[in-house]
Amino acid sequence: MAGLPTAPLAVFHQSDRVKAKSLAGSEPRLVVSFTGVGKPEARHQTEEFVKSSRQDGRNHVLFVSDTLRSWYNDPGIFEEILDVVGRYREAHGITETVTFGNSMGGYGAVIFAGALRAKSCLAISAQYSADPAVVPEEERWAAYRERIGRFTRPPLEDTQEPGCSYFVLHGGGKVERPHWSRFPVCPNLHHYIIGKVGHGVGKRLKSAGLINRVTECAIGERPVALRRALAGELEFRRRSSLEVV
After folding, report:
1. Which of 68, 101, 125, 231 has its CA 20 to 30 A from that of 20?
2. Chain segment 188-237, per-residue pLDDT in tens
3. Residue 217: CB partners within 8 Å, gap ≥ 6?
4. 108, 158 Cβ separation under 8 angstroms
5. Is residue 74 classed as helix, strand or coil in its secondary structure?
6. Where residue 191 sits, what CATH number does that domain have?
7. Is residue 225 domain-resident?
8. What are phi and psi of 219, to 5 degrees?
9. Domain count, the chain
10. Quick one: which of 109, 36, 112, 25 has its CA closest to 67?
11. Average pLDDT for residues 10-16, to the nearest whole number?
12. Is the pTM of this model over 0.90?
């Protein structure tokens, strides 16, 4: 799902648990793109959705990797990432921030959006939590989850801020249900369940030619336009306070 950048990514920050690469943009908007776990055999995670994040080079993009695959639970890693993003924003005169991510990165996009005072958040196939005590049905990524000594992140809904527009897309089915069914229902969370794609929502959006449009609508806080884009290509439903899930 990674795109091809028009310029090489520059390493902005690297420690023993956080790596951040950047692409400069022409406007003072920053998309903080959180990477997923990546392939098990790969030492490094891959930057995803590069083209759609950049919006023809208008946006600055900071690709942030939790290289421990701790779901941002390693003590102090949350604060380290906040500091990295803060330094980038100061260095580039950023006035608007958006968070974006897929899978573990989608979870990151949600939990960091409030702390970063993001205007909007796009989270694809995001976990509600990696903690087995919170989502006991989840059996994937066991090798990584077993390494997490202590789960330090608060409940996901406690991290959400009313000033941010959250756009969350999950695949339907039994595997993803333990996560999407636990997400809160609130006015500023636009939550869509895409049928018959499981954890592969990002791939499905890309194959349908929708990833750029969905990203554009989320960044622009345009839920109606996003729903219209999905309706033209995919089966989906929107979670609401009137729906029993």
Report:
1. 125
2. 999 999 998 999 999 999 999 999 999 999 999 999 999 999 999 999 99
3. 167, 223, 225, 226, 229
4. no
5. coil
6. 3.40.50.1820
7. yes
8. -65, -40
9. 1
10. 36
11. 97
12. yes
